[in-house]
Amino acid sequence: MRCQYCGCLDSKVIDSRPTEEGSSIRRRRECLRCGRRFTTYEKIETSPIMVIKKDMRREPFNGDKIKKGLLLACQKRPVSINDIDALVEKVEKVVQSVGDAEIDSRRIGEVVMDELKRLDEVAYVRFASVYRQFTDVSSFMDELNKLVMEGKAKRDGE
Q1: Which helix (H) or strand (E) segment is 121 a member of?
Q2: Is 148 exposed, middle or buried (0-12, 13-18, 19+ CB in 10 A)?
Q3: How many CA atoms lie within 13 A of 123 on its CB side?
Q4: Could you tell me the pTM of the whole model?
């Protein structure tokens, strides 16, 4: 594994453990040249799944795209990178469990939104504003009102 700091190909594994979802192995490594530590993940290689986009184009599923969007939505929020990685793993697990060679991007988006809503409501609204392509303040307010009503219903049910 190439060191992200100095580029050396020699490293040693310091710690190995399964991720929370159990779908990959997290490895802490130490570079034998510079001594810095970094994390890698080992996953089972799966057959590629194609995502059907809104315009009917198809592209390979890429969990890194989801992570990038989540990092933007969670910027300056109390959401750890481990929480984001766990959310991406859950989405990847759902995509793999469908069992088809193709999955609709809307289904992926809804899974991301459901999980993100549980994790951080502000990050959820940020993500939703891009994902649902809010075109004006009223559509943004509609989503906020839904979120407030859901929260009120939860509190009333407790």
Answers
A1: helix 121-131
A2: exposed
A3: 26
A4: 0.66
